[in-house]
What we know:
This protein has four helices and eight strands, in the order E-E-H-E-E-H-H-H-E-E-E-E. The strands form two sheets. Strands 1-8-3-5-6 form a five-stranded antiparallel β-sheet, with helices on one face. Strands 2-7-4 form a three-stranded antiparallel β-sheet. It is elongated. It is an alpha+beta fold. The chain starts with a strand and ends with a strand. A hairpin with a 2-residue loop joins strand 5 (98-104) and strand 6 (107-108).
Amino acid sequence: MKVVTKELHFSTKGEIDLIDITHDxxxxxxxxxxxxxxxxxxxxxxxxxIVTIEHESxxxxxxxxxxRELVPKGKDYLHDRIDDNAHSHLRATLLGxxxxxxxxxxxxxxxTWQQIFFVELDVRPRRRRVxxxxxxx
Length: 137
């Protein structure tokens, strides 16, 4: 079994910034030389997430609104006594830090309208790192 690990690095604008990383992940899979296996997309950090969603502007705005409604700011969260970003941590926990996809015939397998996004959930702009690990033969 072969394992190829690469990293993506980018800056975000802050709270609920959505960054489409689909083409970067596809490029890493293709360059890995792995024909069949899996690719893991993972964000190290407690206030970022990896999701799949269609890259359509209305849907992306709906997604942001849903996050704000599900886990609103300023709800007297205990963690806010430390650094005023409890809602960021809670949103990240609900969304998750990783997604895993099949690799078939050297290509990332995903649905036509299924793009891969990094979601910045922290309250300020950040410099982020996403780990992409391709495993297989």
